[in-house]
């Protein structure tokens, strides 16, 4: 079987992007939560909030480091595997990536040193300012990366210039309106969606680790307060994400109708109201959804605001421009299902927290220990749906993926680099998991008064841990603060 260099290059970019995308959302969400925790310390001078800020800063630094290491690889692929694409979008991407480096990365990495090493060297206010700058830097980084990616989905603010290179006439996009590039038709809604996903991921990470401590009956004041702050972030962001997802789907229907048709398995335009499939199996040869459960007219209502107007299907565009249906359909529907599950989880936890009974529910704490995988799944599948759904275009309506790859790179070379990256990323994952697990097992530092530091199984093996009926240590010599923590 002959190797396909373009397919291998696409798989390599998917591998590197999906691995890298484990870390920026976590850094963004965790950074925002750290700002709240340290702000609470400045306001109350309660040492527990400082302990929280110090602990989560250590985990933030670990994820930041792995994120930087894994992100560098992507830049080189533009020049090695995607030379035609890089020439076409260089003016646009160069501006966005330069802005990301100047306004985001240097801001974040510059103040990171003060954040990590400056606890006893600068004033509390200066350290809080550094925390804010690091959080803003991570958000600004997302802004420029999303702008660059959104421009590929909905190009704006440019014109096409023909350039003679040797005996070939090649095209490149040049910026004519920088702010039209920044505020292209999909950038704001996509950025909102990405940041909400990051906030949810940070919140579920905090709740997962905190639930582990609660189950292990360790650092309970710290864990309850951390869980409560994470729960507030997670519940609010999950609810807003529901609105953001609806708004973005309507935007996709307006700017990229074939992508929405792929998401919904809409092979042909209906004569009347368009149903929405809750689940099903796309059958592309037969151009229909098999074994599906459809809600009549719901897609018409969500897209157009009424129950009668049809939604455009794939039959309204040339077959050569059809995206694949199966992968976008499955990833989109699983992503939506995961989002709904996170809303239910955080809503139930929020009600129980309001009733002061949350931390008595050992079964729910066990769920939250492993529920950190939900936002990871949601973020990854959302990216897959968005990127596969815009095929066959790498730049929507302007440059096809098949035409964007480098001509000088052989398939065997791409395959070899794929294998190399796979090995490196497996090793990086093992290092990350080992260091993260050791830091979590170590805990936030010396135990507070009346809270013995109990050892035992690690964080990754605690799903079956037990907790006392009261939701706190039965041997605590100073239960009064813990009782106070149980209040709404």
Descriptive key words:
488 residues; mainly alpha; two-stranded antiparallel ribbon; globular
Short structural summary:
The protein has 488 residues and is mainly α. It is built from 16 helices and six strands. The strands form three sheets. A two-stranded antiparallel sheet has the order 1-2. A two-stranded antiparallel ribbon has the order 3-4.
Description:
With 488 residues, this protein is mainly alpha-helical. It has one domain. It is built from 16 helices and six strands. Strands 1-2 form a two-stranded antiparallel sheet. A two-stranded antiparallel ribbon has the order 3-4. Strands 5-6 form a two-stranded antiparallel ribbon. A hairpin with a 3-residue loop joins strand 5 and strand 6. The protein is globular and about 65 Å long. The termini are far apart.
């Amino acid at each position: 079987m002959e190797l396909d260099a373009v397919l291998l290059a696409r798989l390599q970019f998917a591998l590197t992007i999906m691995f890298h995308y484990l870390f920026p959302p976590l850094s963004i969400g965790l950074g925002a939560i750290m700002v709240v925790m340290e702000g609470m310390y400045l306001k109350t001078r309660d040492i527990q909030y400082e302990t929280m800020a110090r602990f989560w800063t250590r985990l933030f630094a670990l994820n930041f480091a792995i994120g930087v290491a894994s992100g560098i690889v992507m830049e080189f692929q533009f020049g090695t595997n995607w030379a035609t694409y890089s020439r076409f979008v260089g003016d646009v991407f160069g501006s966005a990536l330069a802005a990301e480096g100047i306004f985001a990365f240097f801001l974040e990495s510059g103040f990171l040193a003060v954040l990590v090493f400056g606890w006893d060297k600068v004033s509390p206010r200066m350290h809080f300012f550094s925390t804010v700058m690091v959080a803003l830097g991570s958000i600004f980084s997302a802004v420029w990366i999303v702008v660059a990616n959104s421009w590929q989905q909905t190009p704006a603010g440019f014109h096409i210039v023909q350039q003679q290179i040797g005996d070939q006439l090649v095209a490149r996009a040049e910026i004519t309106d920088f702010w039209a590039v920044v505020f292209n038709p999909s950038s704001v809604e996509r950025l909102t969606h990405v940041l909400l996903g990051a906030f949810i991921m940070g919140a579920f990470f905090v709740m997962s680790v905190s639930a582990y401590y609660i189950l292990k009956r360790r650092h309970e004041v710290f864990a309850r307060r951390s869980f409560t702050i994470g729960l507030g972030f997670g519940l609010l962001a999950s609810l807003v994400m529901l609105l953001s997802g609806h708004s973005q789907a309507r935007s996709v229907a307006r700017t990229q109708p074939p992508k929405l048709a792929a998401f919904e398995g809409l092979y042909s335009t209906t004569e009347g109201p368009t149903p929405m499939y809750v689940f099903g199996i796309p059958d592309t040869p037969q151009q229909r959804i098999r074994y599906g459960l459809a809600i009549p007219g719901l897609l018409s209502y969500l897209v157009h605001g009424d129950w009668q107007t049809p939604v455009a299907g794939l039959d309204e565009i040339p077959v050569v421009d059809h995206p694949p249906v199966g992968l976008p359909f499955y990833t989109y529907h699983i992503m939506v299902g995961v989002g709904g599950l996170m809303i239910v989880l955080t809503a139930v936890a929020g009600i129980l927290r309001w009733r002061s009974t949350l931390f008595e529910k050992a079964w729910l704490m066990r769920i939250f220990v492993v529920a950190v995988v939900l936002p990871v799944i949601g973020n990854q599948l959302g990216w897959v749906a968005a990127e596969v759904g815009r095929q066959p275009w790498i730049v929507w309506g302007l440059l096809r993926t098949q035409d964007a790859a480098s001509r000088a790179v052989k398939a065997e070379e791409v395959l070899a680099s794929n294998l190399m990256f796979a090995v490196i990323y497996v090793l990086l994952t093992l290092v990350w998991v080992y260091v993260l697990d050791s830091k979590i097992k170590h805990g936030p530092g010396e135990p507070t008064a009346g809270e013995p530091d109990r050892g035992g199984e690690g964080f990754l093996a605690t799903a079956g841990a037990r907790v006392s009926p009261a939701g706190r240590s039965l041997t605590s010599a100073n239960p009064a603060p813990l009782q106070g923590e149980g209040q709404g």
